[in-house]
What we know:
19% of the residues lie in helices and 49% in strands. The protein is α+β, with helices and mostly antiparallel strands. The protein has a single domain, classed as Lipocalin. Strands 1-4-5-6-7-8-9-10 form an 8-stranded antiparallel beta barrel. The chain starts with a helix and ends with a strand.
Amino acid sequence: MKASLLASLIVPLATLYSITFAQDSEEQVKNNSRLFRAKSLVCSINNNGNVGAWIKGSLQILKADDTLNLVLDSIDFEKSEAFLTGNNQRVRVVATQSLAGATFIEAMPNGSMTFLSVFPIPTTKENKEVYPAAYSRHIMDKNKLSGLLIAASSQYHGTCKVDT
């Protein structure tokens, strides 16, 4: 009987504490993260990703073999836009922010999509301008060798540094 009374008091108190802590943490992240005030980011997306390609009707999981260097500039969260320079060209992308971080979405002319999410918690306490990032590509394109349409998705991880 005493244990159930204690549990009935602890659970609401713990819930109240975790809700208050989460709200404080979110507010602190939003106010203190330079990510949300950045006008440009320099990202290094490592080749430690995976590619899923549908080849002849079967899903093949392959190791990604390319390193991507991406630059985002003219970031304007109020206008929901930024410019992304990657391996090919500079393109306008959609820029959004939330407590989960900043996300940049590219819609390619053929309908393929890329997503770069930058999380608002610095990678180390010492360096408050470098943030973890995830980069996803959802691509439908012609295979350069066979000319057949292929569908592929890839997931990479890396970091983005506030440039200005």
